[in-house]
Amino acid sequence: MVDLSAYQGIVFDMDGTLVDSMPAHMEAWRVTCEHYGYPFDLDYMNSLGGVPTRQTVVVLNEKFGMANDPSEVAKFKRESWEAMNLEPVVIASTMAVFDHYRPHMAIGIGTGAERTHAEHLLTAHGLLERIDSLVTATDVTHGKPHPETFLTVARQMGIEPSKCVVFEDTEIGRQAAQDAGMDCIMVNDGEIQV
After folding, report:
1. Residue 9 DSSP symbol
2. Is 179 an active-site residue?
3. How far apart are CA 42 and CA 91, in angstroms?
4. 90 beta partners
5. First-last CA distance in the chain
6. Which distant-in-sequence residues (6+ apart) come within 8 Å of 137 by Cβ?
7. For residues 174 and 123, what is the distance between their CA atoms, to the nearest angstrom?
């Protein structure tokens, strides 16, 4: 078990870190990119993991010189994901950390997902009522890599950012954690990197 005794709070990213939902999201993005004419590159889209959906559309528009409406594309992507009706599974390594530290340490989730999606996923796995804070793309002005998501989680938990550790699976998330003044432990393909 990873030693987190130096911290007072743990912040988990959700998709790809606590819940293995990235394959379903990537399939929804493939369908969306095809529909709106964006070239689909799995590695590139994975690198944008953690970026709120609307902001991802802004990035795609800039990259490919397009002008699709971010709200319309985000809605299409969300509906594509929901239509797949895939129930992602929890990631064993990070759930072990969650379960080990939950009795005596504050736990929050900072995700680039929209609130309705996050609440659905966390409720399905019995996690929503076990956390102290949930901050989603719906709750912030600036998504990752901006530190607002993680700073808001820390504030809601009543813990100084420097006393929190973040678990993340993307470089964008790692950057957000560092800019929030938090240590970050990476999760790669479901395994904690120590």
Report:
1. E
2. no
3. 21
4. 19
5. 11
6. 52, 53, 54, 55, 111, 112, 113, 114, 115, 143
7. 26
Is the preceding peptide bond at 23 cis, omega within 30 degrees of 0? no
Q: Which residue has the tokens 């479901």?
A: 190
> Do residues 22 and 49 touch, judged by C-beta distance below 8 A?
yes
State how far the Cα of 84 lies from the Cα of 30, in Å rounded to an integer. 13
Tokens of 146: 């901006």
Lowest mean pLDDT segment, chosen from 88-92, 124-128, 130-134 = 88-92
**Strand ranges inside the chain, DSSP E:** 9-12, 19-20, 89-90, 106-110, 133-135, 164-168, 183-188, 191-193
Cβ contact 28:77 at 8 Å? yes
| Beta bridge mates, 89 | 20
* Catalytic position from the list 3, 13, 43, 99: 13
Closest C-alpha to 136, from 154, 171, 110: 110
Please state the pTM of the whole predicted model: 0.81
Residue 148's contacts (CB-CB under 8 Å, 6 or more residues apart) are: 140, 141, 142
| Each residue's pLDDT tens digit, 69-78 | 999 999 999 8
Residues 6+ apart with CB under 8 A from 61: 67, 68, 70
In angstroms, the CA 137 to CA 140 distance is: 6
Q: Tell me which residue has tokens 């559309």.
A: 57
